[in-house]
Amino acid sequence: MYGFDTRHFSAPIFTVQAHKKACAAAAFSPHIPNLLATVGTDSLCKIWDIHAQSPEGKLEPRLIGKRDLEQGDLFSVQFYEDIPWVLAAGGSNGELAIWDIEESTEISEHFKPTLDPNAPK
């Protein structure tokens, strides 16, 4: 996965090996800032914070959580527009997997403060 600053498109500002096999699709959450979901042909759906920083202060996306959606190779992912924490992914098994990512403690604890600025960190 490559990240570019569209104002200066000459070189990526970060690169991340998102999946062991091909990363087939990615989707930004329409509700939760900096939350990116990726799916790949390794059957995993991964949740990233794309605004995380390395110890040196460089932009470096951080993997927050992942799940095998048991749909074979995954080819598509999309967030549900009306419910911030729900996404759907489709794969080679021919069925749609629905994941409420809020059920993951790591994911919900990481991103909830971005939704509620008064929440304790």
Structure description:
The model has no long low-confidence stretch (mean pLDDT 90). The chain has 121 residues and is mostly beta strands. 9% of the residues lie in helices and 38% in strands. β4 and β5 form a beta hairpin. It is globular, with a radius of gyration of 15 Å. The protein contains 1 helix and 9 strands; from the N terminus they run βββββββββα. It has one helix at 105-115, and strands spanning 2-3, 14-15, 23-28, 35-40, 44-49, 62-68, 74-79, 86-91, 96-100. It has a single domain (2-115), classed as 7 Propeller (Methylamine Dehydrogenase, Chain H).
Number of strands: 9
Stretches where pLDDT falls below 50 for ≥5 residues?
A: none
The overall number of domains is 1
- Helical segment tally? 1
Strand content: 35-45%
Cα-atom radius of gyration: 15 Å
**What helical percentage do the residues reach?**
under 10%
Quick rundown:
This protein is mainly β and 121 residues long.
Structural topology:
Elements: E1 2-3, E2 14-15, E3 23-28, E4 35-40, E5 44-49, E6 62-68, E7 74-79, E8 86-91, E9 96-100, H1 105-115
Antiparallel strand pairs: 1-2, 3-4, 4-5, 5-6, 7-8, 8-9
Structural key phrases:
121 residues; mainly beta; Methylamine Dehydrogenase, Chain H; 4-stranded antiparallel sheet; 3-stranded antiparallel sheet; globular
